[in-house]
Amino acid sequence: CFLSALIKLFGRGKMKGLSPVAMAMLLCLVLTGSAMAYAIYDDATGGDCAQIGTWDAGTKTCTLNNDISEGISIGDHQITIDGARHEITGNGGGIGIYFSAKRQITIKNITVKGFFIGIHHSLETSSTIEDSRIMNNVFGISFYRVLSDVITRNTIMNNTYGFLPQQSDYNAIFNNNFIQNTFHTYVTEWN
């Protein structure tokens, strides 16, 4: 499988000097090749939230009731995913949590593990990832063209790349524990 070959190359450090353009193409391949099982939206039921948790329309919060084994995409602004200490576990491919062009997203109290990318977001502002564990992924947290996010009080461990920011400004990354990642951070085109 092409994806498992890429994972092996990343694991061996063969792609350490990958150009930002090649990295973007690789991420594009991963994004288009991974279906999200659950889509969370700001509607009466929270989209697919009822399948995995409880929806609070007043706070726009989806609180997980159980561990799940497929990814979540976020389709509206100001959504909160509260993992309530549950896990999203992948099989080595795809993305655990994904959102793009959304504002004020909060991801908290969750473990995301076993994906190609644990959490990926792009083209967004003022979101928060807090009090979570992102582990055993190729990329723990990846973001592209993100502005004014807060990444705090997370444990980011046993990933090939713990944190991959690209072309992003004014983000606050503090009080996180980076443990046993091959590369804790891999900064490309930081403005």
Short note summarizing the structure:
By secondary structure, the chain is mainly beta. Helices cover 14% and strands 43% of the residues.
Q: Uncertain segments of ≥5 residues (pLDDT<50)?
A: 1-14, 18-22
Tell me the helix content.
Answer: 10-25%
Beta-strand residue percentage: 35-45%
What general form does the structure show?
Answer: globular
Number of DSSP E strands: 17
Structural class: mainly beta
- Per DSSP, the total helix count is 3
Distance between the termini: 35 Å
Task: Characterize the structure shown.
This protein starts with a helix and ends in a 6-residue tail after the last strand. It is mainly beta and 191 residues long. The longest helix is centred in the N-terminal third of the chain and has 13 residues, at 20-32. It has helices at residues 2-11, 20-32, 49-52; strands at 38-40, 53-56, 61-64, 72-74, 80-89, 95-100, 106-113, 117-125, 128-130, 133-135, 139-147, 150-152, 155-157, 161-166, 172-174, 177-179, 183-185. A hairpin with a 4-residue loop joins strand 2 and strand 3 (61-64). The chain is globular and about 40 Å long. Residues 1-14 and 18-22 have low confidence and may be disordered. It has 3 helices and 17 strands. The strands form 2 sheets. Strands 2, 3, 5, 7, 9, 10, 12, 13, 15 and 16 form a 10-stranded mixed β-sheet that branches.
List keywords for this structure.
191 residues; mainly beta; 10-stranded mixed β-sheet; 7-stranded parallel β-sheet; 17 strands; 14% helix; globular; disordered N terminus
